[in-house]
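Notes from the 1:1 (GR / supervisor)

We went over the backlog. Supervisor wanted to see one worked example end to end before approving the batch request, so GR pasted a single chain during the call. The sequence is below; no edits were made to it. Supervisor asked that the structure be written out right there so they could see what the output format looks like.
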Amino acid sequence: MRVRTDLVVDQLVSRVLDRALELRSERFDPETEGMLDEAPDPKALARIGYAGRIAETEMFEPARRPMPWLAEMLEERLADAPSRAEAIADLCRKLAAEEPEAKADLGEGSWRVPGPGGHVRHFLALAAADELTHGEGDGDPELKRELSAGEAKRCFLFGFYARCCEESAGYTSG
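Structure output shown during the call:
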């Protein structure tokens, strides 16, 4: 079935982004805050990615389904990492780097995560970057420049996957 991009943006992306923007200013537990500090710049975009995943699980029942593939990857990383936060940050960098700059095809990248789908996350990452770049910049000078689609998605998805890892490990803050 062909997806109408304008409907996806109007109906899904804007709703998830609005909720993520509300949630991004919350203080998460110290471990989560430390992990988000490991995100690539601009860190504010990773924070919105993290909050975006919270919004997805609030809004979409399928987003609450388990991710055995991610739990397995995380367990392997935890066995060799000096800390839980470092294991999650390492895995988030890897997963975010695998996402294509264009919309991911069904079954690849963030499509593997249950919820509204990789196409929504593609547009959500770009909309979040646009919001931060053309808004006040959240006080981050890194946000005063235009980001490529790839940069925006890697930053956003780092936070997104951080939350997914917490869910998969049976631990969630906030």
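Supervisor's comment: Residues 5-168 form one domain.
Batch request approved.
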